[in-house]
Amino acid sequence: MTGESQSSLAVARAVRGHVLRMTSAGRSSHVGSALSCADLLAVLYTDVLQVDPQHPEWPDRDRVIMSKGHAGAALYAVLAERGFFDTAVLHRHYQNGSYLSGHVSHVGIPGVEFSTGSLGHGLPVGAGLAWRARQIGRSWRTYVLLGDGECDEGSIWEAAMFAGHHGLASLVAIVDYNRMQSLGTTDDTLGLEPFADKWRAFGWDVVEANGHDHAALVTALRVPRTADRARPRCVLAHTVKGKGVSFMEDQVLWHYRPPSPEELARALAEVGAG
Amino acid sequence: MRNRFFAGLLTAALVDPDLVLITADLGFGAVDEFAAARPGQFVNAGVAEQNMAGLAAGMALAGARVFTYSIANFPTLRCLEQIRNDICYHHADVTVVAVGGGLAYGALGMSHHATEDLAIMRALPGMAVAAPGDPAEVDAVLADLLAGGGPAYLRLGKTGERRIHGGGVSAPRGASIPLGTGGEVLLCCTGAILDAACDAAESLARDGIAADVRSFPWLDPFDAAAVREAAGRYAALVTVEEHSIVGGLGSAVAEVLAEAGAGMPLLRIALPAQSSSVVGDQQYLRTAFELDAGSISRRVRTHLAAHPAATHPAPADPEGNRGLASQIR
Fold first, then answer.
1. Global pTM?
2. Cross-chain CB nearest to B54 (options A106, A135, A155)
3. How distant is the Cα of B17 from the closest Cα of chain A, in angstroms?
């Protein structure tokens, strides 16, 4: 199980603080993407997953694949906050000689299940993990965190079709649906709607939830291990890019721009991590 | 080669429940026996190679030993980034298998000509690359892949390749296999064009040119020591491959020779770096691109004539072997 008792709200607040400091110090992109999924990751690692920070390779652990690897700062932050490694390491993000790359890399970082960064890779790998769990009769759950823009990638739908066809009920895809992608809105770029119906048509159970409402997320993400289910689950998490920082919310600019020292101070105060 | 591979894979799967075969909806008549004998270890991923490669990585990270299978360029180029990021970077125990290496599917057209696969797979970090030359080499390479695991790429011909080696051969990872020693010219080859190289050597022998053949079933790791040794022993080196002249065996040999300061001219017999809109069966296209036995022997003779310094008598052969006639059937 996850470590000592720590509320998911407190973890989310700490993750937002780490992410802001990391991207500001590193002059790195994607702060808006990381803030968008901070609550999703905090709830997962606090109230949902069976993982052991002291034994990150415990064979029966639940698996998390951060398919939207550009928000890697948020994953590193939540892992550190939950005790997989020292939070003091986080300031090395994006620095020369560091293993904490802008996009998720597993090498040298306890708790990172899989390296990503090119979009569309995570769901096929997650499907492979879920297929393997069933093949050898293990009960781990596999969670794959997807970006909404990432769902433009055809490989997502190859894997969605596979998981639906094979009834991989231990697989959970979480879509960080902030409706914003690299150059603009998802609606303007390549419309995803009717998004929930697409997943249903591929054989998935779909649960829609407010991606910043922790109680709702716990319900959506806790997939029973023994229930009589035959479908993988898609959690469409309605989120806000840049969530928690008023001047970053819903602004595509913060897909790229790192906060300046002045902006950092304002942002930290707003998220309560000052 | 294909049938030999599947027979060997099934034999292994019968005693190894962690061995998994994934096909991207190809292998009609070839995967059936495996699927029937080990349904729990078999997946048809459908026509979805990117997903196949990702699935394989996921399964392998949870302890499976996975073989992915398709034909020509589909299991490699179609999902190249999944192989690079998901399989190679994670050191996943996945072997990517392609049937129809080179021009084996020549009449199907450019899409099915697998003519850059070795160069591209060879460039991937941590990827072993194998291209056995005959059914016996398939056995040897597969034994190593089953024992040592992936990431690996296995390029196979199709079916009905001639058996070159008289018996079983040993080809541990990175080894090459000499066929004959003591000649003045060495024909280095990789993959299923081994038969043409051997026929060319016999043709050269009839013209009084003693040519040995060395098969390289592994391009990565590469038997650089054998090339360096050959540079000192032979008057001329030739590479023969059913692959683009860019990045394959010819390039690997050239790299070794250049770094060793061998200073000897190298003849690279390979496909030109261009797509072929002309179709035909494998033998037709080999002839069209001057890769058939007759063209190989002619090009070697021309090369030797153009480089007279290369025709110095070869060192005496301590084992008294002359050419290939006694080595092949």
1. 0.94
2. A155
3. 9
